[in-house]
Amino acid sequence: MILDRILERKRAELRHKQSRSYLADLKAAIRDAPPALGFAVTLDATRPPARPALIAEIKKASPRLGLLRAEFSEQFNYMRLARTYHEHGASAVSVLTDKEFFQGDLRYLEEIKRALPIPALNKEFMVGDVQFYEARAHGADAVLLIVAALERRQLMDFHALASELGMDSLFETHHERELDTVLEWIPLARMIGINNRDLNTFTTDLNVTFRLAKRIPSDKLIVSESGIHDRDAVTRLTEAGVHAMLVGESLIRAEHTANKVRELLGYASRDTPSA
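Request: output the structure for the sequence above.
Response:
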């Protein structure tokens, strides 16, 4: 399974980062950094029935598709993409920082945060403490915790560490068992993500969100992830009680990214060049 391969690689990467001086440098950067923006608070401000908040993703490639746009082989203009998202209504951004499988970089996150006043999620496969210090040192306001990738105690400890560093946690679930783990063992969890993508087949099915959303208490923020391609899907998610949608590939691969953002959010389209 691709997730297992990614996690194995992450653990190998971590072994090369276990030095006191590296961690000390990260902690120094955090001390000098401005406080994190409220990621969950921002999403909560856009509760339905208005429209779900959009978390727009900065993503160069995927293990399944390779580069998401042909021109990324020459230049990946992540700053232009982030500005397009911000200017056309995205509430937050998600930044892929995994290098080997998604061709991401922590530098993308840091530069976006320096330039734009928008909350950012560090989309990474978190398996060790040092990654949380990296995320905050590079400007992250929230981190992703993939329930399928972590033991129960790790979920609890990582959530506590993220909170200690001032970051929110988005708990990503794929089925009932994972959701129940979060609800039972992390009662203070604020954001629960439902990933519509099957980790084995990589197919997407919005029915995963429709099914799991019914089990989530009303005090939680529901984030639907993957497989959201048009306004009809957004309308159906809104009716199901979803508070935010995390969208990457359909935005990046659209002919006009700005217009796609506006379409998903229900705004009138403009003839805006693609980012």
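The longest strand covers residues 53-58.
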